[in-house]
Amino acid sequence: MPLRIRLTYAKTDAMRYTGHLDVQRTLERTFRRAGLPLLHSQGYHPRPKMHLASALPLGCTGEHELADFWLTEPLPLETIEAALRQAAPPGIRVLAVEAVPAGEPPLPNQVVASEYRVTLLETVPDLAVRVHRLLEAEHLPRERRGKPYDLRPLIEALEILPPDDAGRPRLQMRLSAREGATGRPDEVLAALDIPLGAARIHRTRQFLRSA
Predict the structure, then answer these.
(1) Phi and psi at residue 107, in whole multiples of 5°?
(2) For residue 208, which phi and psi values (nearest 5 degrees)?
(3) How far is residue 17 from each of residues 11, 30, 37, measured CA to CA in Å?
(4) Going by CATH, does the domain composed of 3-104 fall within 3.80.10.10?
(5) Domain 109-208's class?
């Protein structure tokens, strides 16, 4: 009987500029190095059966990333976790492993929102004014891949946090994930007129429909 497991992991600075597909390949190699029996798809080009919850934008880190994998046989969860911790490369930190009940929907379909903490590398004197203006707006017309959309309903929360230990200003935002429309932190920064290169984005949590 195949075992479906959910891996919670952190993507740290060493993999900040590693893209979504390369992260997926890195996790696959980690399972192989750990000697874990991944279940593969059928067909001419079998691939390991796995789902990442949602793509993390390039240049971002995350401390609560989620991925589901299927093993060909059940193994003790503590054995799986220990093997993955030992096999994980720099940039991936294994946090937890849990079994997923049979029949649970695909992981990407369960994500309803993500929370981000953004550290600004430069002082923005009128930051509070910009945040207030954005939250007061009824619509925030944006364009992605040539298609117009409204960013405003995708922003569930946006607030200014106390500065970090270095005195740098910080923001926290919770962005909705809907079918065909997902809030992106880089788009929120653009709406605030803050250059992407002047910020460090860190995803702190992903919210699931079943949670």
Answers:
(1) -55, -45
(2) -105, 150
(3) 10, 18, 29
(4) no
(5) alpha beta
DSSP the chain: --EEEEEEEEE-GGGTT--HHHHHHHHHHHHHHTT--B-B--SSS--B-EEESSPPPTT-EEEEEEEEEEESS---HHHHHHHHHHHPPTTEEEEEEEE--TTPPPHHHHEEEEEEEEEESS--TTHHHHHHHHHH-S--EEEETTEEEESGGGEEEEEEEPP-TT---EEEEEEEEETTEE--HHHHHHHTT--GGGEEEEEEEEEETT-
For the stretch 74-111, pLDDT in tens is: 999 999 999 999 999 999 999 999 999 988 999 999 99
pLDDT digits (tens, 9 = 90+) for 178-208: 877 889 999 999 999 999 999 999 999 999 9
